[in-house]
Design brief:
α19 (414-427) packs antiparallel against α20. The chain has 496 residues and is an alpha+beta fold. The N and C termini lie close together (10 Å). The protein has three domains: 3-81, no CATH class; 94-196, OB fold (Dihydrolipoamide Acetyltransferase, E2P); 205-489, no CATH class. The protein has helices at residues 3-23, 29-44, 46-51, 54-81, 126-129, 162-171, 199-216, 220-229, 237-245, 256-269, 279-292, 297-314, 321-335, 339-342, 344-359, 370-387, 390-397, 404-411, 414-427, 433-458, 472-489, and strands at residues 94-101, 106-108, 111-121, 133-139, 149-157, 177-190, 399-401, 464-466. The protein has 21 helices and eight strands. The strands form two sheets. Strands 1-3-4-6-5 form a five-stranded mixed beta barrel. Strands 7-8 form a two-stranded antiparallel ribbon. Helix content is 59%, strand content 12%. A hairpin with a 2-residue loop joins β2 and β3 (111-121).
């Protein structure tokens, strides 16, 4: 029996335990997919199990059962100490609150949403609410920064509404909340008192966003902010819709691609250091970058996986991509078990990465010319990323982008150029003025070309169709068929 089997199987069954426990609290698709993955994994290993030593089989079974138990217990502990509930405090009445901004602000139309950790609340129930969190909505014109203290007055909205409760669940994974503060008015800022040690990173982030907005204008600033630090809330609604129709929304989210670029750049910059000494500066820079982007679950997953691969290679060892993915997901779910069932962006990033690992090689084809190979490689990568994630997309969103492969083929190669252009615009700020405007002009031309292509593709008939939302039976049939293909061809490296 291979060593990878003894490592991956308990990790996968830990996720199965977390998924099973999460189904007792809220029904989502991902825990069911984890169960199918564990089942398919064991079926795929039956030859290895038959040929293995009896002691190893018993050890594997013990580890698997123990992993399920620990996964279930980890979720149960989360529910015990951080119950996912929202407590009402005199709902519908105006209150004055003092708190610290506890998340990156997120634009919502003409409003901005953020979490406020309570320091004081004008209420008789303050003793029950100290240290909990409010979801606050302010006018977008109010610029708030992570870590600063604010004095606010607003109306507590009832959380009895199921739509609002689901909205809060998406925002508050492990935080006790006292409700939703709407129509809030900012009374006073207390920026310089008792700020979090790392809040200066978010101050710099806000300054960087403002700099790009001032130098580039829209929509160039929004796209540069999206590909560099994952900030896409200011993208015009019409352009955001075109990205969604063409299946290009993912390029505005920080992913493993961005992390890989940064790691490779750090390798070049630290080439003069001994291999074992390169790990520390890389970890520090990646950690700052993750915080800068808001530390969403999908970004953390990409960073953990990238650092695992980088660390193992620096130690002179080999690691399969599949094992790196499972280990990174295990580490993240160990810290925050609710992500497995609630965070759709995290789930999609995992599925797309697995899909690339397993099916990219399967779709390779030797074209007759170098241009043909280049075009097919780009198209094959796009298609491979959707093999596993496609049913998850139409189940949750009810749409399929038929133009997505072509859009990714045309726009994908331009993303590294846009990232480079954004960095050069930032660096040019320290140089003579004309260079800044020269780089800004080139960046705007690049963005103009990209937006023209995207909007033209989005305007094509049947660019996107509505299909399959909530059709669980169709999703299960798809994955059963996919498993048969998988067993026949065993696509992708790193699978035992």
């Amino acid at each position: 029996m291979k060593r990878d089997i003894l490592i991956v199987t308990p990790l996968l069954f830990f996720l199965l335990g977390v998924g099973g426990a999460s189904l007792t609290v809220f029904f989502t698709l991902m825990p069911l997919l984890v169960f199918l993955a564990a089942l398919f994994w064991m079926i795929s290993l039956w030859r290895d199990l038959i040929q293995a030593d009896a002691k190893k089989i018993i050890l594997l079974l013990i580890l698997s059962v123990l992993a399920i138990y620990l996964g279930w217990g980890r979720f149960a502990l989360e529910e015990m100490f951080f119950p996912l509930r929202v407590d009402n405090l005199t709902s519908g009445q105006n209150v004055t609150v003092l708190g610290r901004v506890d998340s990156l602000p997120e634009r919502n139309g003409q409003k901005v949403d953020f979490l406020l950790r309570l320091l004081a609340l004008e209420s008789a129930q303050f003793s029950e609410s100290e240290g909990r969190v409010l979801l606050v909505r302010l006018p977008y014109a109010e610029k708030v920064v992570y870590g600063e203290r604010l004095l606010l007055r607003g109306r507590l909205v009832s959380t009895a509404d199921s739509t609002l409760m689901e909205f809060l669940r998406q925002k508050l994974y492990r935080l006790k909340a006292v409700g939703f503060l709407d129509g809030a008015v900012l009374l006073q800022r207390l920026d310089k008192e008792n700020r979090e040690p790392w809040s200066s990173i978010f101050v710099w982030r806000a300054q960087l966003l403002s700099y790009f907005s001032a130098v580039l204008g829209e929509p160039a600033a929004s796209l540069v902010n999206g590909v560099l630090i994952g900030e896409r809330s200011s993208i015009p609604a019409a352009l955001a819709k075109s990205f969604q129709v063409t299946g290009l929304t993912h390029i505005l989210a920080i992913s493993g691609f961005n992390i890989t670029i940064i790691i490779n750049l750090l390798i070049v910059c630290t080439v003069w250091l001994p291999r074992r000494w390169r790990l520390l500066p890389t970890v520090v820079v990646i950690a700052i970058f993750v915080i800068l982007t808001g530390a969403s679950a999908s970004v953390v997953r990409a960073a953990v996986m990238g650092m695992l691969v980088f660390a193992v290679k620096n130690l002179g060892r080999r690691v399969s991509p599949f094992k790196a993915i499972v280990l990174s997901v295990f580490l993240i779910v160990l810290v925050e078990p609710r992500l497995l069932g609630l965070d759709i962006s995290f789930q999609l990033s995992v599925l797309a990465t697995l899909s690339l690992v397993f099916f990219a090689n399967m779709l390779q084809w030797e074209a007759g010319t170098s241009w043909g190979r280049l075009l097919w490689d780009g198209l094959a990568t796009t298609l491979a990323a959707q093999v596993i994630s496609l049913p998850y997309i139409f189940y949750h969103f009810g749409t399929i982008s038929l133009i997505s492969p072509v859009a990714n083929l045309l726009i994908g190669p331009l993303i590294p150029l846009l990232m480079l252009a954004g960095v050069l615009v930032w660096v040019a700020a320290a140089l003579p003025g004309p260079l800044v405007w020269l780089m800004a002009g080139l960046t705007q031309m690049l963005v103009l070309g990209m937006t023209m292509i995207i909007e033209a593709l989005a305007g094509l008939p049947l660019a996107q169709i509505e299909f399959g939302q909530g059709m669980l039976w169709l999703v299960l049939c798809y994955y059963l068929l996919l498993f048969r293909v998988f067993r026949k061809y065993r696509p992708g490296p790193g699978f035992p």
